[in-house]
Amino acid sequence: MTTASTLLQAHLERVFNERDAGRRGQAIQELYAADPTFYEQEAKYSGAGAIARAVTQLLGALPPTLVFSMAAPAMQNHDMGKLLWRGHLPDGTTVVTGTDIAQVKEGRIRSLHVFVDEAVSRS
What we know:
The protein is 30% helix and 41% strand. It is of the alpha+beta class. Strands 1, 2, 3, 4, 5, 6 and 7 form a seven-stranded mixed sheet that branches. β6 (94-105) and β7 (108-116) form a beta hairpin. α1 packs antiparallel against α2 and α2 packs across α3. The longest helix is centred in the first third of the chain and has 13 residues, at 4-16. The protein is globular.
C-alpha cells in the first residue's frame, strides 16, 4: 500500500513540478481518490478536474523556471502525511515556502490542505 509520505513526494514532483497539463492531470487521477478535496487557505476545490484547473492557474502565475522541492523529509502519522516544501528559482533563491497536509484513504490522497507561509520581508 502506498504511504502518505510517498504520495506527498510524488504529488510535489508529478503535480506541482509538471508544467504539461495533460501529464499533470494524469498524475492527479493516479494520486488522488475518486472524490478528492483540495484546500487552500482561502479556497476549496472538489474533484480531480477542479484541482487540475486550480494547479494550472497557480503555475501560470509563477515564474516558469520555479521548481518545488522538499524542505524536509515527508512525515506520516497513520493516514495523515505532512510535507514541508519550498519553491525556488534555478539560482537557489527561495520564492515561497509552505506545508502540505494530506489525508490518505486506500492508497490515494483523499484531501490535501496547502498552507503557504507568509513572506518574510528582509530590510
